[in-house]
Design a protein that fits this description.
By secondary structure, the protein is of the alpha/beta class. Helices cover 36% and strands 31% of the residues. The model is unreliable at 4-19 (pLDDT under 50). Residues 1-21 form the signal peptide.
């Protein structure tokens, strides 16, 4: 029996699971999406409000988008990268982190905790853009992996410079930070 066709068939069956499924292209803008169910968290006099958000808001500054499932494991997945962003002390007038939390992709019964945690994070990092996506609009529109974290770096025009789903390696952390600094 010839094993080559079997190996090729097995590789073809496994390959789609190993390749990122997202539909975000380097050098292009992210696919259009808006979040009307919750949306961007706005802080005014320590009061939380929500306003509709869409990705047309992603122009004007170099941005890192952290699109995460509403799960602790997803948040921790790229904590090393987020810490590197904090350490870099990037200028707020030219740079902004946008965290999009998919509340629809949370462990059953934890949606309220995800919401309060997002609101607390907005209070702690008021200069950051925080979006609570109650219905998973961004994950669906961008075809992102469930239960995961995606890091996307955009230039000032909103074009994608870097995209990675899952945990970034140390080399990828350095590469993404370098791209942010080069484009500020």
């Amino acid at each position: 029996m010839n094993k080559k066709p079997m190996i090729a068939l097995l590789a073809a069956a496994l390959l789609p699971g190993m390749v990122s499924a997202h539909n975000i292209q380097l050098g292009q803008k992210t696919p259009n999406v808006s979040v009307a169910d919750k949306g961007e968290i706005v802080l005014s006099n320590d009061e939380i409000a929500y306003q509709e958000w869409d990705n047309s808001d992603l122009v004007g500054k170099v941005r890192v988008i952290q699109a995460i499932a509403g799960r602790s494991a997803a948040k921790e997945m790229n904590a090393e990268f987020i810490e590197a962003i904090k350490v870099a002390q990037l200028p707020n007038e030219n740079y902004q982190t946008t965290t999009i939390i998919n509340q629809d992709d949370s462990i059953w019964g934890t949606g309220g905790f995800v919401k309060s945690s997002a609101e607390d994070s907005k209070r702690d990092f008021s200069w950051s853009s925080m979006v609570l996506d109650a219905s998973g609009s961004v994950q669906s529109a961008w075809d992102l992996q469930k239960e995961s974290s995606a890091i996307i770096v955009l230039d000032k025009q909103g074009n994608v410079l870097f995209i990675k789903e899952g945990k970034l390696t140390s080399t990828e952390v350095k590469q993404a930070i370098m791209l942010v600094k080069e484009n500020i």
